[in-house]
Amino acid sequence: MISSFLLCPGRGSYAKSELGTLHRLAKESGQEGRALLARLEEARSRLDPDLPSLEELDRAERFRPGLHLQGRNASPLIYACTLLDELVHRHKGELRVVGGNSLGFYSALVVSGALDPFSGLRLISTMARLQERGPKGGQVLWTLLEEDWTWSAERKALLLRLLKDLGRALPKASLRPSIFLGGHIVLAGSEEGIKALLERLPPVKLGKRDFPFRLAFHGPFHNPLLLPVAERALEELADLSFRRPRVSLIDGRGFIWSPLWTDPEKLRLYTLKTQVTETFDFTSTLRVGIREFACDEVYCLRPGSSLRAPLGHVESWLSRGLPFPFTP
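Below the sequence we write its predicted structure tokens.
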């Protein structure tokens, strides 16, 4: 049986082309998947009775950004798709290790067995609500990547200078890296800071994509601005039942939470505070998972295909013996 490293996607992975994904996965995952989805829908109706069901969102006639990308809808919808796809994949190989990007780390907690599916939904729904009501700001995606998938040292140096300069000029903007995403980088900060970044980051065209751009409906995730959100989450989710994972879980530092020695209380603190307020290094998640576990396959769970690019960047750098732009 082949060994697998599973990756769980984050916000932004469910877009227009993903409409109907949950419905298709419910069919692919059979009776077990349909039963899980029914229980998730029941739990969502209790947690957020004022919001549409996941199936209503997924089977809408058209994609509406104001509806589908809003955090309290997008996060649970992505989460449900990921869990059903894991059911589909479960019979195809031996799961050795799991990781996730940003929101995907919450899904990874469930896939690894550190949380049950309904605690996972409560975690995701609570964080989406708290972040929606929390400090305002956003995220900007920029790239260090060249056409040959090497990364630009000049662009990295420019970015670090810009962040230093803006840090002096706008000390309350909290502008800093939010997510390391292979050759791409997500930056987060206050509204004032995001506006300054978009004005001063030089444009880069990579393939058909133009950088930088703001990520729609995203807040200042993985940033100290969200400390009040983290503190509130620790209060509201104090009874959430974390446990040792069944398989190894890699977090947003490249740290491995092992089934043999994980302290559930430390995992709780990392989940509800540390990764909420500090940079999420998904590049290190990939690097550690590939190097340390040497699985037969790395599989990006649905919805979408947003994780394939950073995975490709990291695999390319490892195979060519190239350095990484941001090494812990």
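The longest helix spans residues 71-90.
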